[in-house]
Each structure stands twice: as C-alpha cells, then as structure tokens.
Amino acid sequence: MLTRVRDGAAIAAGPLVALAPPLTAAAVAFFLALHTLLPGLFLWDTGELQTIGPLLGTGHPTGFPAWVILGWFASVVLQPFGDPAFRMNLLSAILGGVAAGATVLLVTRLTDRRWVGLAAGLILASTPIAWQIASQADVHALHLALVAILLGLLVDWERRRTAAARDSLDHRADRSLVAAAIVFGIALANHILSLLLIPGIGLFVLAVEPAIVHRRRFFFGCIGAALITCALLYLELPLRAGPFRAPLVYGHPETLSGFIYVVAGLQFAGSINGPLAHLGLKVADIVAVAEAQFGPLAWLIPVALLVTVIRRPRYALLTVPSLVITCWFTESYTNAEVWRYLLGPALIAITWLAILAAEVVGLVERAADHAPAGSLLRSLRATAVDGVRGRASVLLEIGLVVVLLAPNAISIPARGQAVDRSADLVAPNWLATVLPKLDPHGVVVSWWSYSTPLWYAQDIEGKIPGVWIVDDRTRLDEGLGSVSDVINTNLGRRAVYLVREPDELVALEGHYTLALIDSTEPNQPVYQVVGRIAAQP
User: Fold this and answer.
1) Does residue 537 form part of some domain?
2) How far is the C-alpha of 283 from the C-alpha of 287, rounded, in Å?
C-alpha cells in the first residue's frame, strides 16, 4: 500500500489506484501522438535519426548516443509495427507518453494531489510543443521524458531526506539522488542541453542538504555516477565510427579531436549571437511562445511562480534557474529549430501551474475548517470513517482540474490540425520519383535536408547501392573541396546530379549546363550536370 499523510489523517491508496493517473496521462499522450504521427520517412534531422537509429550509427553534434542506442533497441522490439522510419516515429510517441506519465508522478509528489497530477500530465500531452515532438522521430522526445523523470527523482529525494532527518532514518533515502544522477548522465548523453540544468540542480541539492559536501564519498559518488553513465554511453561514438564502424557516421568521432568536435558541438560554436542584447524583445518572444502553448493559462504562470517560490522554495531553486537559462539560451541561439529547446521550460511551467492549483484547493479546504457547522463549505472537510478526504473535497479538486484542462480541451482540434504529420509523404514521394532516374553508379551532390532520406534509401532500404551521396559533411570529412571541385572531378567519368539550394544553383548555372530531371518537390528540383560552359574569350 502507498501511504501519505495530510492534516494528520493517513491516506492509503492501492497500487492500481496510484498508477491509474500516470497510466491514463501516458495513454492519452500516446494516442494523441499516434493520431498525428508521421507515417514514415522525412527530411532533415528527422531523416537522419530514422537512419542512424536502426543502424546504430552516430549523429550530428552532439552525437545523441543515448537516443541512438534506444532507437536501435526500439527498431528491434517494434519490428511488427512498420518500417524502420515509422518505428523511430513510434518511439517518440511512446516517449511522449512516458513524459506525460512521469509528469503526473512528479506533480503528485509535489502536491500530494493525484487529480492535479493527472491534470498536469494531460496538459503536457496536449501542449503543442510536446505533441509535435511526439509525432516525429526526435531526440527531444527522450530529453523531455528524462527531464520529467529527473525532476521527479529529485523531489522524491527531498521528501525522503526530510523524513529521514525527522525520523532519524538511515541513508536509504539517498538512493533517489543516486538514481537522479544516473538519469542525468543519460540525459547528458542524449543532448548537451541538459548541461543547462546543472545550476538549478546544484542549488536544490544544497538547499535540501547543505552538509552533503561533507559526505564526500556520497557526494562525489553521485557526480561519478552521472559522469560514468554519460561516458559509457558516449563510447558508442568512437566504437561505431572505429572498430565496429556503422554504415552512417557523422564526422570522425573515432579520433580524439573528432570526438571533441562532435560532443562539444564545435560546429555550432558561432551560433550564439548577442546573448545580452535585446533582452526586452527576448522576453516578449518567450511570452508570445507561452501564450501559444498554454492559451489563457499562460497569464497564470507568473502567479504560479510566486506561489511556488513561497510554498515550494526548494523546488523553485531547482526550476527557476533551469527555465531562465534555457529560455535565454534558446533566444540567443540562431541555428536549427530552436523551439524544441523550450520543452523543458514548458514542463516546468506546467508544474508551477499545478502547485498553484493545489494551493487553491488547500485554501478552500482550510477555509472550510473555520466555516460554521452544517454549512456547505464545512462539508468539504467531512471525512469518512477511514480518514479519507470527504467526497466534496475530492470533487472540489476534480472541479479545479476540469477548469485547468478546459482551455487545452477546447484547443485540441486546432492544435491537432496544426501538428498533424499523418499525411506528410514529401520524402517518400520525392524518393519514389527521383531514385529511378539516377544512374546506378552516379554521384549525387546533395545537402543535409535531402541527403538524409537518400542515406535512408541506400543504407536502410538497400536501394541505389552504387550511387555516391556527397553531402556537405562528406566534402568536409573527406577533403573533397567545393561543390565545383566534386563536379569537375567526376564529370565525364560518371553521371553527376545536383540537389542544391536555389541560390547555389543559380551560381552553378553560370559554369555548367544543367538538365532538370525532377521537380516533384517544387522547392528542391534535381538536376543533372550535362557539361561545362566554355569560358567567354
């Protein structure tokens, strides 16, 4: 039996009752994502992940070994459910469910209110940013799930340490902190964005147990658990790029310099621009994002933050720095689809709203304690013979949950339409048209967005085995020079095709005769290089 205490009354809940809310939220999140799930292969980073997961390859910086290993495992376990690309999409839907379920457990630990926890999980499941990530292969789906689990373990450790200090229990309470350290190591091996959580975690741990630094063996043991877990997972990069080479490897992580280049994300080192500039505009942008994600609930977030600081100051120390630093980093980073970086802040904001909701219920219950006997308000504190809260009190909590869920419930059809990927066949249709037109021994000089589905077709589906796909990354890693260098080296020896961005094609048309072979994707035609244009005398 799971037991908790509120107002001196023991409240016992059977395992099935305790598990029902997280399982319900997980199921709702999964089925929402399943309804909008990308049916197969896509372009860009999605196509890369759909390829390296089943191949146990290595990804672009920062490598994402935790996701790759999980993706490989999922590609094996989920074989009955579709092709490899779909399995990687399905993995994100499952992880979305895990994140929602873990959020329920986190909020239940924070508030001791199961229905409020369920509301938090359902809000996360139907928040556009989380819903969209769960609808496609993406490492950020695992990041969200791990952050929810990590926060839950840290809060659990706080509760256990508080009880241990009060009841003079032994150090078994510290198991939750060790588990949190391991989860953090996994999260760091999944995405370097997890580094931004460190200041908040440090402040939280010191606030819960200031003397922990004097327990040196345990303190450094936790740090070691995180680092060893991360290091072991990152071994996937040099192993799969070296002695057990995968068909698809990014960069040269088998060398020390190449490993540092990938893991540290040095490729994107110049993407931080004006971190202290235009702070007002950055705040306004974050506010706009919050409105888009939470609707009317966004305006309650400042109030929820204030209540969290007052009622759960340690949790505020854990989450406020993480949210602020991540939002600041996202607003200062100008590469890729950075909106995905706001998943963690969205989760944190939802937990603050849940703490606010729990406090409102608590205020009404406390007011009922002082209400006249026989009044309706007094009935909220009526208890059954076994000490369980009165039905009216539970109904109050459920009623508030319904109010919290109403904005999301009303918006679900529009949000579902906005994130829907279920009819997205751009990549499969493009491949189906282009591949038959390629010379079996040709060279395709491509760029990232369209290289990834080409690699999938070659390495996963076994198509175009003799075609050489030369991505910009390939040119850099193999020292092939510019696009023109690749064309000049191969023209006349083998068929050369161009899958390049429009601006670059305009420049190349001044030097080469190009023949259009496909225009299925209007924004990305495919050309064959027919010959050189003679220089004008």
Assistant:
1) no
2) 6
